[in-house]
């Protein structure tokens, strides 16, 4: 007999609800715990998962396997080519291992829920108990209701309810116990599982050697990294986060999203630690940096609650149905220019090049480039949403969809449609000295002073032109008017 924990986007042993429960069960029954992870190339494909992210996951699984092996717990990782076969394959393994109890943490996306439902049915038929628990979020979806008993669709009152709920139920921040040591016999009984290596990335998601080496260096994998980075951030930077977070040239945010997305760090752990660091012992008072950071982490929960309550956001539909009839452009050349960071708008280009190089982009820049794609270029925001997923190492459906909906004004609690970022003003405000632009756009390194924000408008353009920097692909003032008209037209139809 055995107990199984199915790892998904919870790739850690620390503070992992389902893993902890699985371990307790195994201990109580005096049977071994087996862990498994399925690499599903078709799911990666269907969800536009970036090669950088797949690589991070696989590198993390190596770390996880080592940590679990120290406790005599096998981690079995295998690839199942046909995603429809995943539940059947898993059941076959459960039977082979004599597993009577299976545990996992819930993922809220539609495909994942359907896969789980299939597996639950199969387990029931074979008398195997299946337990799925909330872990990915601090407060489980469905817990918070507005005065009218409805799901909130506005962040600020939702945040108030989120904070109140945590203060009234402080135990939800408690850490789960780490898994216990397996009986020593597990080593021999499941020797083949210990010996199975972590599979390589599927061919269409494999990184070439150069970016792989670079990203490995930039993004060390595994939960120990996540915990260490959290510790450093709280010690050194969190205090000034509120004022410093919006400047992309400064390294003032936590850069932890990759860990939250892969589950190498629990959002709960981060909120608990930040809360403990705050001497006011309130989530909404005391150190302004910590309060602000916790409220940013809350956005992550908010978007997951939205996804769980309105699953149609997974189906390429805008959250606000009245925005479904906007006429978007599909100019592939313009889109390509945006993707490559060759729009002639320095702040946009710097940000896109950061994304293409690091598989990451600063939050302020994500808003700038998203607004630029949807409102200046009038390209369908879903093109941008998809490109982000294909590139980001921290790609997360709910946060990405939420961020795009916010910027394109089609999402939950969005920017009003008539609020259109002026890329030049954003650039001058948040990258005043132009350090971020010069770092990512080498053609502009020799452009001095304010001209760096707009070399062909504010400057003579000579230096930029000689270095091969493109002229702006559109005129912002004209685009602004066009966007206002197009949104109004769409809303009139919707
Ligand atoms: P910090 O500023 O240190 O914040 C701490 C944590 O809070 C983050 O790691 C993240 O988990 C959460 N957080 C912060 N801001 C947001 C936000 N606006 N929405 C949701 N969670 C937030 N985040 C992702 O994790 N994956 C994505 O795919 C993603 N796509 C985005 C797309 C767009 C268009 C926009 C505007 C935002 C997107 N974000 C996404 C949110 C945000 O940009 C990143 O989480 C943040 O930049 C990560 O850097 P950090 O860890 O240093 O954040």
TrEMBL record:
Where along the sequence does the record put site: Electron transfer via tryptophanyl radical? 328, 381, 404
Q: Name one GO cellular component term.
A: nucleus
Coiled coil where?
none
Q: Which GO terms describe its molecular function?
A: deoxyribodipyrimidine photo-lyase activity; DNA binding; FAD binding
Task: Recite the UniProt keywords alphabetically.
Answer: Chromophore, FAD, Flavoprotein
Required cofactor(s): (6R)-5,10-methylene-5,6,7,8-tetrahydrofolate; FAD
The positions annotated for binding FAD are 241, 253-257, 293, 296-303, 394-396
Q: Which family does it belong to?
A: Belongs to the DNA photolyase class-1 family.
Listed name of the protein? Photolyase/cryptochrome alpha/beta domain-containing protein
Q: What is the lineage of its organism?
A: Eukaryota, Fungi, Dikarya, Ascomycota, Pezizomycotina
